[in-house]
Specification:
Layout: H1 3-23, E1 26-34, E2 37-44, E3 49-58, E4 66-67, E5 73-74, E6 80-81, E7 94-96, E8 102-104, H2 109-122, E9 131-133, E10 139-146, E11 152-158, E12 160-161, E13 164-165, E14 194-198, H3 202-205, E15 213-218, E16 224-233, E17 239-241, H4 242-249, H5 257-261, E18 265-275, H6 290-303
Parallel strand pairs: 3-17, 14-16
Antiparallel strand pairs: 1-2, 2-3, 3-18, 4-13, 5-6, 7-8, 7-9, 10-11, 12-13, 14-17, 15-16, 15-18
């Protein structure tokens, strides 16, 4: 081989390494989430936050999440299911003792459902008795119970619309008013591609806020969908709305709890890329904003030169 050919090949190799290094110039932020619901988070030199995790499916904000007469039951296979609701009531409410302490949570779902029905029949807020704490459902006629230690917990009567309880997320869409029982003020998991991230910790300290834009990719193919940060939780990572999960997997929208679960993906299969401080790029966010979300996410994908580097941070 002639010398100038060796020089060209060497330069090409060095330039390739340099370009790859620049694309992957990332800072490790730490672990977000807990236990099996955790992931290692990175921040790129352009300010993008990313992590690789599983994909559970979130239904909150969709009116058909929690059926009034479809709280959850054991199906023929002995598994928890619904008839025409996206979720079981155990994922939107729990049962509390009169002092506010937990009695039944999701791990005691059948006991929770039985007590839920009894409390509902008694009129929801009978003094001195157990009550339902609706963390995933909007309430009216609200009061507060002071738990041991002084922390207050909300109790109230669940909002209803048609045959469902009104499902809520952590933050209302612009112009919403809490307590009016209007489901359209909540980001609809059936209509909008969105993800759920922890409300505190690494995400918050790096500027991630609700309604910021994001991109979610399948690691196996690189297929991606634009999304927004639609909801927050205490500590879990790796959640996507029904709309996002179905589109990413190329499947139809589900109509029952078991079909929702069927959209989930295992650990390490999905990459989440969040663009902090970008919520205003989709003004007047509503349940009709999908086209604007895709347009804004595409522009950010190109602006930050995400390309085919997968994952964007090692």
């Amino acid at each position: 081989m002639r010398n100038f050919e060796k020089i060209v090949l060497t330069l090409s190799f060095i330039m390739g390494l340099t370009a790859d290094s620049l694309a992957r110039d990332c800072r490790y932020l730490g672990t977000i989430g807990e236990g099996s619901d955790s992931a290692e988070a990175y921040k790129s030199d352009s300010g993008v936050i990313s992590f690789v995790a599983d994909m559970d499916v979130n239904t909150d904000g969709a009116l058909s999440s929690y059926g009034i007469d479809d709280l959850g039951h054991k199906n023929a296979a002995g598994r928890l299911d619904t008839n025409n609701s996206l979720n079981v009531i155990c994922n939107g409410a729990n049962i509390r003792k009169p002092n506010g302490n937990l009695l039944y949570g999701a791990s005691n779902c059948y006991s929770l459902i039985r007590e839920f029905k009894r409390i509902r029949k008694a009129g929801w807020m009978k003094p001195g008795e157990n009550f339902v704490y609706f963390y995933g459902i909007e309430v009216s006629e609200k009061t507060y119970v002071t738990r041991p230690g002084g922390k207050k917990i909300l109790r109230g009567v669940p909002c209803k619309k048609d045959r469902f309880y009104v499902s809520q997320v952590a933050k209302m869409l612009p112009g919403g008013t809490y307590g009016d029982c209007k489901p359209e003020k909540w980001l609809d998991a059936l209509e909008i591609p969105a993800i759920v991230v922890p409300r505190t910790g690494i995400m918050a300290s790096n500027g991630v806020k609700q309604h910021d834009l994001a991109v979610v990719r399948l690691k196996s193919t690189g297929k991606w969908i634009g999304a927004v940060v639609g909801d927050t939780n205490d500590r879990k990572v790796g959640e996507a709305t029904v709309n996002l999960a179905a589109r990413l997997r190329g499947k139809p929208l589900p109509s029952t709890y078991r079909k929702v679960i069927g959209l989930a993906l295992g650990s390490g299969k999905v990459e989440y890329i969040v663009f902090p401080g970008t919520a205003r790029k989709v003004p007047d966010l509503s349940n009709f904003s999908d086209a604007d979300i895709q347009s804004a996410a595409t522009a950010l994908f190109e602006e930050h030169d995400i390309g085919s580097t997968l994952p964007v941070c090692p």
